[in-house]
């Protein structure tokens, strides 16, 4: 009797159309999701992310409509993303015309839209700030790519239809995406530094010595910077270099070391020429502390400045950093200016 009742209940549910339906959404591989979160806009286009947080609504949202094309449903903690032409992009909820949202997209920009669903299935679309969207997107999983489906409204003209058809899924699966322009960079680097002047007059106490410095020596540094989504970056760095010296002619057998520690605040502009190739130029201001040890002892502090350029090769969160820097720095008569060649690693967060 119980079995017969269960069967009858199942038949009734199916007839009434309320039987559970299979999930209409599927998730992409974790690697594709990580690349999607850090994608850059293709040349001449913009990126639009639509994500849904863990709200109190049904398991699946109503159908999302992008540029009059049905895209699909969003599960809780999931997202879609697309590259779009620099034009007006419309987002709407199928069957809820009052819930539409219009974005005026510019090439090279990234936009974030949050979709929330209530218990009754009603949905809301809200554009959020870049920092908010970037943070909240970290909790969401990428849904498998869905190509635009049937048009919900007829195009006004052939030109409009062509514009709408340009909407495509961004960053195809399996291809690495470059790191997002915004975020924090931690750079660890080393290299060789050549002094601009190898022979200098150094004053220690009441005596002036003609000092011959080692022409080139190792230099090491660590740098932290915040990169904005337009390619500009600001930050600071610490550099340490050490050159041996000999004294001529006052102390023919004299020798020792000169250690320069430099603190600089930098500004840079990165240019994206390919997915992973990002040349940059910049400059910095700060100060240098020079310590003389050995037969000449003393410490001095002075002004420091630099002009720099290089290329960053970035793959998602890890990159190879190369740099050439020309510096001017003088501390109590000791000139530590010169040319530095650097290579290192960049960690993007």
Give me the Rg, rounded: 30 Å
> What is the string of helix and strand elements?
HHEEEEEEEEHEHEEEEEEEEEEEE
Q: Average the pLDDT over all residues and give the rounded result.
A: 79
Q: Between the first and last Cα atoms, what is the distance in angstroms?
A: 62 Å
Give start-end ranges of low-pLDDT stretches. Answer: 1-23, 147-180
Morphology call: rod-shaped
Q: Which CATH class of the largest domain? A: Mainly Beta
- Tally of extended strands? 21
CATH topology of the largest domain: Porin
Report the portion of residues in β strands: over 45%
Number of domains: 2
Strand order of the largest sheet: 11-14-15-16-17-18-19-21
The CATH architecture classification of the largest domain is: Beta Barrel
Helix content: 10-25%
- Strand-pairing-aware structural class: mainly beta
């Amino acid at each position: 009797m119980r079995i017969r009742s269960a069967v009858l209940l199942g038949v009734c549910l199916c007839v009434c159309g309320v039987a559970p339906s299979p999930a209409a959404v599927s998730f992409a591989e974790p690697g594709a999701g990580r690349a999607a979160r850090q994608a850059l806009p293709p040349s001449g286009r913009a990126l639009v992310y639509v994500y849904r947080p863990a709200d109190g609504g049904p398991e699946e949202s109503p159908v999302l409509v992008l540029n009059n094309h049905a895209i699909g449903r969003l599960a809780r903690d999931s997202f879609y993303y697309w590259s779009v032409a620099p034009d007006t992009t419309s987002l709407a909820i199928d069957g809820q015309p009052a819930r539409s949202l219009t974005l005026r997209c510019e090439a090279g920009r990234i936009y974030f839209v949050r979709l929330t669903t209530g218990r009754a299935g009603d949905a809301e679309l809200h554009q959020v700030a870049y920092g908010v969207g970037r943070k909240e997107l970290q909790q969401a999983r990428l849904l498998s790519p869905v190509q635009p489906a049937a048009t919900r409204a007829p195009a006004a003209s052939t030109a409009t239809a062509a514009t709408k058809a340009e909407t495509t899924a961004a960053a195809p699966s399996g291809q690495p995406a470059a790191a997002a322009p915004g975020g924090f960079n931690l750079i660890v680097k080393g290299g060789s530094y050549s002094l601009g002047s190898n022979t200098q007059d150094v004053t220690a106490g009441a005596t002036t010595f003609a000092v011959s410095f080692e022409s080139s020596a190792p230099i090491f540094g660590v740098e932290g910077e915040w990169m904005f989504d337009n390619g500009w970056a600001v930050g600071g760095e610490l550099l340490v270099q050490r050159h041996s010296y000999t004294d001529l002619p006052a102390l023919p057998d004299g020798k020792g070391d000169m250690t320069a520690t430099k603190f600089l605040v930098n500004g840079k502009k990165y240019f994206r020429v390919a997915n992973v190739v990002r040349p940059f130029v910049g400059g910095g201001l700060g100060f240098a502390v020079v310590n003389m040890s050995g037969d000449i002892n003393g410490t001095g502090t002075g002004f420091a400045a630099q002009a720099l350029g290089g290329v960053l090769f970035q793959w998602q969160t890890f990159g190879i950093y190369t740099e050439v820097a020309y510096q001017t720095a003088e501390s109590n008569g000791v000139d530590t200016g010169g040319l530095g060649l650097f290579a290192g690693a960049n960690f993007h967060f």
